[in-house]
């Protein structure tokens, strides 16, 4: 079986979390909802439906969900041509691939958004597959995206590492029995990521790349 390096995308490989915060805030504002950016930030990483429910509650007018999601998509779409990859993201994927790791992305993005993210990463030559929002019935923190990524990688949970930047990423990895590594690039506190299951926390992809030989990836390569 292959070793699999599974990656979240938003906030992990591409610097987009705060763009999502602002565009969700504006979408809520346009619909007459007063939702703080702090609360939105803590919800980033959830799929659209789950994010709206998390912020507005189960008793909200669910008929409004589609309008809110469409507004966010429209607002966020204005950034598609200039989404910035995070420092070291491309190099990290390529180095892991050169060591025999099968790279699979696990993201709540789909359609044009996913295309824009992949363009920003610019590493399609080493990406073996993508588990997108279109492939699963439940998003993070449910394990479905991680399970789908494992299927695409043709790997077992014990042979995989999931790298993400949110509490939801860590919980999804844990629910799938996959080792979790966190990055601080999404703006979530180290303690929160560790509490949610992160075995190691790095500042950004570049730091993980620079410390790869002492990381969980290297430990697994040595059979530890």
Automatic annotation (TrEMBL):
Keywords: Hydrolase. GO terms for biological process: DNA repair. InterPro entries: HAD-like_hydrolase_sf, HAD-like_sf, HAD-SF_hydro_IA, HAD_sf, PGP-like_dom2. One of its GO terms (molecular function) is phosphoglycolate phosphatase activity. Its EC number is 3.1.3.18. GO terms for cellular component: cytosol. Gene3D superfamilies: HAD superfamily/HAD-like, Putative phosphatase, domain 2. The keyword Hydrolase applies. It is an enzyme of class 3 (hydrolase). SUPFAM superfamilies: HAD-like. This is Phosphoglycolate phosphatase. It comes from Streptomyces hundungensis. The gene is gph_1.
């Amino acid at each position: 079986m292959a070793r699999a390096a599974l990656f979240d995308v938003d906030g992990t490989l591409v610097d987009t979390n705060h763009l999502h915060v602002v565009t969700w805030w504006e979408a809520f504002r346009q619909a007459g909802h007063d939702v703080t950016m702090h609360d939105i930030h803590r919800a980033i990483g959830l799929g659209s439906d789950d994010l709206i429910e998390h912020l507005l509650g189960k008793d909200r007018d669910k008929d409004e969900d589609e309008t809110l999601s469409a507004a966010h998509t429209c607002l966020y779409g204005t950034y598609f041509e200039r989404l910035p990859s995070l420092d070291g993201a491309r190099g990290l994927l390529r180095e892991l691939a050169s060591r025999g790791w099968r790279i699979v992305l696990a993201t709540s993005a789909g359609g044009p958004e996913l295309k824009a993210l992949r363009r920003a990463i610019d590493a399609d030559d080493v990406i073996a597959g993508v588990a997108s929002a279109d492939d699963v019935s439940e998003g993070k923190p449910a394990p479905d995206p991680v399970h789908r990524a494992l299927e695409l990688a043709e790997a077992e949970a014990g042979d995989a590492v999931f790298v993400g930047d949110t509490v939801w990423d860590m919980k999804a990895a844990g629910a799938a029995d996959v080792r979790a590594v966190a990055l601080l690039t999404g703006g979530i506190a180290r303690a929160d990521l560790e509490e949610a299951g992160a075995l190691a926390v790095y500042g950004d992809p570049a730091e993980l790349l620079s410390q790869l030989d002492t990381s969980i990836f290297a430990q697994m390569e040595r059979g530890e």
